Amino acid sequence: MNSRQQLILQTVTENGKISVAELAKLTGVSVVTVRHDLNVLEKNAYLRRVHGSAVAIDSDSVDTRMLNNFNQKKILAEYAASIVNSGETIFIESGSTNAILARILSKRRDLTIVTVSSYIANLLRHSQCEIILLGGVLQKRSESMVGPLTQLALKNVHFSKAFIGIDGFRIDTGFTGRDMLRADIVNSALQKQATNIILTDSSKFGVVHPHPLGPTGLINMVISDFTINDQYQSYLSRQGIEAIAPAGDDQLP
């Protein structure tokens, strides 16, 4: 995927739907060239083409999700990296913000990183970190390991911090995920009772998905952006969860 196609995909992902003419104006190339780029992106299942426009798809692809709110996710990931200490063994679950965190940590050589994400393991393949990729059944679209073998592997490995991605959060449901098998893996990781850290942008707040992640009492910290509303901030505080907003003040009230 070239830089122009990345820009097109990011724009479609952020807008949901956008016309070919608008994309041509944005990228400074002809409509014919944009149509060619859209054909390439559609062939690789990054988006759908409809008459005269491109439409975002609800995708588990890490590459696709990483482009959505990328700058904000990078700020969150940089803060998360700053609280990882030398010599630590940490768990990084799957997800786009966690993938950015892994990329930042790849520059360090004093860490052991445990993950269920083959995508993250591949990102780290040239790093100086020690990488432990837990086995199991590979979910091809999400590039994540799931199933009983992965849960068994989690029981036999230890770490001091766990960075977890979520798909939704509401006060009445707590943290939730959209995929049952991946939710099972998250819950197995949370039960290890390390310092459990939710790493997510605020677009997930107010959204609910079928599968609970938690209970909430197992979460120690939420790293998100400052657009979380006061109601959520107050709830997290009452639950004893430290809420960090790196893009604004150091800590949410």
TrEMBL record:
Transmembrane segments: none annotated. GO terms for molecular function: DNA-binding transcription factor activity. InterPro entries: Carb_Metab_HTH_regulators, DeoR-like_C, DeoR_HTH, NagB/RpiA_transferase-like, WH-like_DNA-bd_sf, WH_DNA-bd_sf. Residues 1-56 form the HTH deoR-type domain. Keywords: Transcription, Transcription regulation. Signal peptide: none annotated. PROSITE patterns: HTH_DEOR_2. This is DeoR/GlpR transcriptional regulator. It comes from Mixta tenebrionis.
